[in-house]
Amino acid sequence: MIRAFPFIVLASAASGQDLPRADIYVLGEIHDNAAHHVVQADLVARIDPTAVVFEQLTDEQADRITPDTPRDADTLGVLLDWAESGWPDISLYAPIMAAGGAVIRGAEGAPGDLSAYGLDQPLADDEQARREALQAAVHCDALPPDMLPEFVARQRARDAQFAARTLEAFDTFGPPVVLITGNGHARTDWGVPAAIARVRPEVSVFALIQGEGGETPPGDMTLQAEPEPRPDPCDAFR
C-alpha cells in the first residue's frame, strides 16, 4: 500500500533534505563515524520518538536508564558498562540517548520467537550468492567459503531480532520509534525494513543510510560524511 506523509525538515547536518513521517525510522551508521552520530542525535530530537531502540544495548542494560537518569557520557558509560562492550566511545552515543528524552530500549539479547520471519526458508540463489559475497568482503576474504552460509544466516537472524524488538517498542509505546543500527541492518532490500515489511506491512518504515563517500547499501535516503581515519581492518589478516 502506498502511503503519503507530511514532511519534517531536517537539520543542516542532513544536507537540508526532507524526511517523511513514518511509524519507524531506521537510522543507519558506520559505527565509529562521529558525524553519523551527530546526524542521528539531531534527527532523534526532531522526530521526537516515543522510544529509541539501540543495536548496542540489551533490554537489561536499557532498563537501567530511568526517566531520572542523567544522559551524559560519564553517567551512561558507567551505568551501561560501556567500556566492556566493544562499541566505540559512549560519547558518540550519549547525545542520541539524550535527544528528546525518549524511552531507551535494547535490540540485543535473547532473540525470542522469530518464526514469523521465515528464517527457515532458503533465500533465492542470487540473493544468497550476493550475501555470501558481501560477508566474504567485510571479513577481508579471510573466511573459508563453507562458513559463508552460516554468516549469512546469522545476519538474517539479527535483522529479524532487531525488527522484532523495534516492533515491540512500537506496539508498547506507539509511533514514532527510532532504531539506531549499522548500515548493514538498515538497508531496505534485505535488512530490518524488509523484515518489518514481511510481518507487519501496514507499519511504515523509513531507512537512512550514512556513508563515507563510497558505495552504500540501498536506503530511502543516503547521506555522506567524511571518512574517519582508521587503520585498514584487513591488516590483521595479511
Automatic annotation (TrEMBL):
Haem-binding uptake Tiki superfamily ChaN domain ranges (all copies): 18-98, 118-195
Gene3D superfamilies given in the database record: 3.40.50.11550
Span of the signal peptide: none
Region annotation (Disordered) ranges: 211-238
Name of the featured protein: Uncharacterized iron-regulated protein
Residue spans of biased composition, Basic and acidic residues class: 227-238
Lineage, uppermost ranks: Bacteria, Pseudomonadati, Pseudomonadota, Alphaproteobacteria, Rhodobacterales
Pfam family of the protein (one): Cofac_haem_bdg
InterPro entries the record matches: Cofac_haem-bd_dom (IPR007314)
Originating organism: Jannaschia pohangensis
